[in-house]
Design brief:
Blueprint (H helix, E strand, L loop, with lengths): L3 H23 L7 H30 L3 H4 L1 H23 L7 H7 L2 H17 L3 H7 L1 H7 L2 H16 L4 H16 L2 H4 L16
Length: about 200
C-alpha cells in the first residue's frame, strides 16, 4: 500500500468530524435544535468531500505527487458515508422515523428528491469503486463514474434550495465546483502546469 500514513491521516481527519458533532449534540453545544444542525452539517460535509474528491486529479497533475490519487477513492467513499449519515439524521431528527410524514415532506420540500437522486448516484459510484468492478465493467466503468459530474450539480441544487436567501456560502461552493468541472475538460486538464516532481500520468474520470 502506497502512502499508508497519509491514508491513515486522511481517514482520521474525515472520521473525527461526525464524532465531534455527536459529542457537541450530547453536550448541548449545538443550540436548541441539535438534530437539525447535525443534518445540515452532515449534508454540507458530503458536499465538501465531493469537491475535495474532484480536486485530487488537478492537484496530482499540478504537483506530480501520487499521494493525492492514493486517497481519492477513500474520500469518495467518505462522501457517500456522510450522505448516508445525512439521510439517517434526517430520518431520525426531522421525520422522527415517522415514514407517514415523508409524503408531506416531499410535497413541501421537493429538494429532498434532488438530494435522494444525488445520493443514489453516490451509491452507484461507491459499490463500483473496487478493482473487481473496474475489471468487470471495463470501459463502461469510466462512463459510469462520470456520474460524478451530474452528482455535484445536484448536490449544489439541493443546497441552494435549502439556503435560498443566504447565498454567500453557497456561491463559494458553486464557484469551486464550476472550476473543478471545467478543469475536467481534457484540453484544459492537459494545460495544467506541473510545478512539482514527476508523477504518474492520470487520466480524468
Amino acid at each position: 500500500m502506497r502512502h499508508p500514513y497519509w491514508r491513515l491521516l486522511v481517514f482520521v481527519l474525515v472520521a473525527v468530524w461526525p464524532l465531534y458533532w455527536l459529542y457537541q449534540a450530547w453536550s448541548f453545544a449545538l443550540g436548541p435544535d441539535p438534530g437539525k444542525v447535525l443534518v445540515e452539517r452532515l449534508g454540507l460535509g458530503a458536499l465538501i468531500l465531493l469537491l475535495i474528491t474532484l480536486s485530487m486529479t488537478p492537484l496530482q497533475k499540478l504537483s506530480g505527487w501520487s499521494g493525492w490519487m492514493a486517497v481519492r477513492r477513500q474520500l469518495g467513499l467518505w462522501c457517500f458515508a456522510y450522505g448516508v449519515l445525512h439521510l439517517a439524521a434526517y430520518a431520525v431528527f426531522i421525520l422522527g422515523l415517522d415514514w407517514s410524514q415523508l409524503a408531506v415532506e416531499l410535497r413541501k420540500r421537493p429538494y429532498i428528491i434532488v438530494g435522494a437522486v444525488a445520493l443514489f448516484g453516490l451509491l452507484l459510484l461507491a459499490v463500483t469503486s473496487n478493482r473487481y468492478s473496474q475489471r468487470r465493467l471495463g470501459k463502461s466503468w469510466k462512463k459510469l463514474h462520470r456520474l460524478i459530474y451530474l452528482i455535484l450539480p445536484l448536490g449544489l441544487l439541493h443546497m441552494l434550495w435549502i439556503v435560498r436567501a443566504d447565498l454567500q456560502e453557497w456561491a463559494i461552493y458553486a464557484a469551486l465546483g464550476a472550476v473543478l468541472l471545467v478543469l475536467r475538460i481534457p484540453a484544459l486538464m492537459r494545460r495544467i502546469p506541473r510545478i512539482g516532481g514527476a508523477g504518474q500520468k492520470v487520466q480524468p474520470k
